[in-house]
Amino acid sequence: MGDTRRYGAEARSTDVVGRLEVSARHHQVLVDGPTWNGFPGQELMPGELFLGGVAACAVELLQMFARDEGLSLGRVAAEIRGEVDPDDQPDAGRTVFNRVRMRIEVHGLPAATAEGLVERFKGR
């Protein structure tokens, strides 16, 4: 059996309603609920953190795939956007992205090789 990889994070409220602190290991970040919910909206919002995690995963995995294949990869960037239609939610107790689009830029590799790496990520 392989090694177990564990991830964890915690969130806790602060003295400002709608602002919270998220921590993982020894890192902390302030997070705000969005203004359309009556919260501050000044810090990163939960949906942005979620989408940022997906984009970070894309960049990290492309780097790993290229490294494992001995490819000399240049800069990699991922931009992700999500839309939530409040009138088109499955139930009032949760939020679902109605549309998510990601654009990935890969530099330093032939287009076909870069496309192959992106397809591997999409298959994960």
Mean pLDDT: 93
Tell me the quaternary state: single chain
Our estimate of the beta-strand percent is 25-35%
Strand order of the largest sheet: 1-2-3
Our count of helices gives 2
Task: Annotate the secondary structure layout.
Elements: E1 10-13, E2 19-24, E3 27-32, H1 46-68, E4 76-83, E5 99-106, H2 111-122
Antiparallel strand pairs: 1-2, 2-3, 4-5
Helix pairs in contact: 1-2
Structural write-up:
The structure is a single chain. It contains 2 helices and 5 strands, in the order βββαββα. The chain has about 120 residues and is of the alpha+beta class. About 10% of the residues are buried.
Features:
single chain, 124 residues, alpha+beta, three-stranded antiparallel β-sheet, 28% helix
Quick summary:
This protein is an alpha+beta fold. It has helices spanning 46-68, 111-122, and strands at residues 10-13, 19-24, 27-32, 76-83, 99-106.
